[in-house]
Amino acid sequence: MKLSPKQVKFLKARAHPLKPVVLMGQSGLTEPFLEELKSTLAIHELIKIKLSVADKSQRNVIVDSIINETDAVKVQLLGNTLTLYRPGDAKKIELP
Asked: pTM of the full predicted structure?
């Protein structure tokens, strides 16, 4: 799924007041973490994730892996906070 610049701007505005709902622990990208992430995306569609990675190159690899595993779209990566969007069955968020 590819988002237009207008859609990204819309989703960033919707995500601004959100708090991270999934926290990646020191153990990194594990199967339980990915399962929790997938179920949270199915419920909320737009979420923030707090990553615990100090190295930027490693963080980018982890972000790419998360996107590939969850079929989500990266809305924004700001510091160690990743914002993802994946439309659910109920389609709670209608994109412009």
From this structure: 0.90
